[in-house]
């Protein structure tokens, strides 16, 4: 099978996967994974989503460091092509999606049936490939951790990225007043098309002044939930907008700077700080993940949420896909498509 194999750590944007010196090389004859248990399922991958964590993992800068060589990749969708002797939930031909620690940048992947989710009829498989990590992260953070309620004010930083777009949509489904922070006219325009209540363009607007003006206009006291995948100075500024008893969701540090949340102010204002590493839920709270994914797939099927695919590439164009991730070019998700060899990348 074809597979993108990380043979050494480095920047995958600097060379094409057909170059033997590239950190990530396209192998044409990689072994097809075997069914390793009676409840395992082999899936032929239709599409697999790229996340910033995948890029960091290839650089060697992610918290989980698999031994070399490894096949990167996390969330995916595809068709069941083989099942173990005790598999009861799926059969050959079923459409499924899921996520793995590594391994989805390939034509086939094997996973246990307990980790697979059936993609409802009518749902696009490419869109489903980009659902688990970003929408799963935002859903667990907002619904299970912050318990976002109707009428609360949600402030989403990095709102045009994968988890950010998921967060603003989930916020609207929950009935919150959603304020989105992004950079650039194209991203602002798309966020407005999603029905976001207010958008701050960091290219020419100050987040503190702008959000305070909006809150005053709407007669709102402040922000109840801060969704933060960015970190750095933007986090520090956003904390000046928080209500008493606000929830802070620490999702990531795309800015490269880990913010300092002052414990004395958190004490006085009764803030709750939630660290959210979504991947660890598969080990500690798998039932939460299952409930979350089933609700998200139901929302996707009914049109309550939509997965915006910004860029589509073939495996041979993986360097371009990672470049879009690295340089924040994507509005939404970047995916690799294995099934349709005629599909061309789009910018």
CATH overall fold name of the largest domain:
Quinone Oxidoreductase, Chain A, domain 1
Instruction: Summarize the helix and strand pattern as letters.
Output: EEEHEEEEHHEHEHEHEHEHEHHEHE
Domain count = 2
Instruction: Give the % helix.
Output: 25-40%
CATH-level-4 superfamily name of the largest domain? Medium-chain alcohol dehydrogenases, catalytic domain
Determine the strand fraction and express it as a percent band.
15-25%
**What is the CATH class designation of the largest domain?**
Alpha Beta
Q: Could you give the count of β-strands?
A: 15
Pfam families: ADH_N, ADH_zinc_N
InterPro entries: ADH-like_C, ADH-like_N, ER, GroES-like_sf, NAD(P)-bd_dom_sf, Quin_OxRdtase/zeta-crystal_CS, Zn-ADH-like_protein
GO molecular function: oxidoreductase activity; zinc ion binding
Domain Enoyl reductase (ER): 18-336
Characteristic key phrases:
Quin_OxRdtase/zeta-crystal_CS, Quinone Oxidoreductase, Chain A, domain 1, 2 domains, 29% helix, disordered C terminus, globular, oxidoreductase activity, NAD(P)-bd_dom_sf, Rossmann fold, 11 helices, zinc ion binding, GroES-like_sf
